[in-house]
Design a protein that fits this description.
Length: about 200
């Protein structure tokens, strides 16, 4: 059976702690593989997450230690540390209310960022009125794919947004000085923001 999409057949290959045991499955335009972690956990993992190294385990490395007490970094009460804890929780804790949209759909944290000291070395301190944002929402939390962003930037980078020519409706609304509702209506009717008012 040939792999769907641009990926070669990954069955039998190892990616970090994952071993691919099943053939590819297509789900909502994504190619997924059944994988078994070295701890015994079985999960469907996105082929692109495996290929890019965004997913290297089920999170057992994180769960196997108390990340709140492993490092003595003196930043436990900072905004940066709280953002890091939230990132870890939504990717690895099935009880976290955000887990279905993150860990539940295959978004993971790279091995390097399981250490808060590494995370802050790469990202720096969280600025006031900013939060952690992934530049590409289909990729995990890895260096180069994350930035500190304002709420406006976060909202504009949401995967629910309709992006036209590289901009969301809010950005087009500002540039064209038209109400968002006008542009949304135009998109529903014509599939484009262009055209007469």
């Amino acid at each position: 059976m040939a792999a769907a999409g641009k990926f070669k057949l990954l069955t039998g290959l190892t990616f970090g702690k994952w071993t691919v045991t099943g053939n590819p499955v297509r789900l909502k335009r994504r190619t997924l593989y059944e994988c078994v972690c070295t701890c015994g956990t079985t999960k469907l993992v996105s082929a692109d997450h495996l290929a890019r190294g965004d997913s290297t385990s089920c999170g057992c490395a994180y769960r196997g230690r108390s990340y709140r007490t492993v490092e003595n970094h003196g930043k436990r009460d900072t905004r940066t540390y709280k953002s890091w804890c939230s990132m870890i929780g939504r990717c690895f804790n099935p009880k976290d209310r955000s887990y279905p949209n993150y860990g539940g759909r295959g978004i993971t944290v790279c091995e390097r960022w399981l250490s808060f000291s590494n995370f802050i070395a790469d990202m720096g301190d969280r600025p006031i009125a900013h939060s952690l944002d992934r530049i590409d929402n289909e990729k995990g939390y890895v260096p180069g794919n994350c930035k500190w962003a304002t709420r406006t930037e976060q909202n504009r980078n949401s995967r629910q947004n309709v992006i036209i020519d590289g901009h969301c409706i809010s950005e087009w609304s500002e540039q064209l000085q038209l109400p968002r509702s006008t542009l949304a209506s135009r998109i529903r009717r014509k599939g484009t923001i262009r055209g007469k008012l």
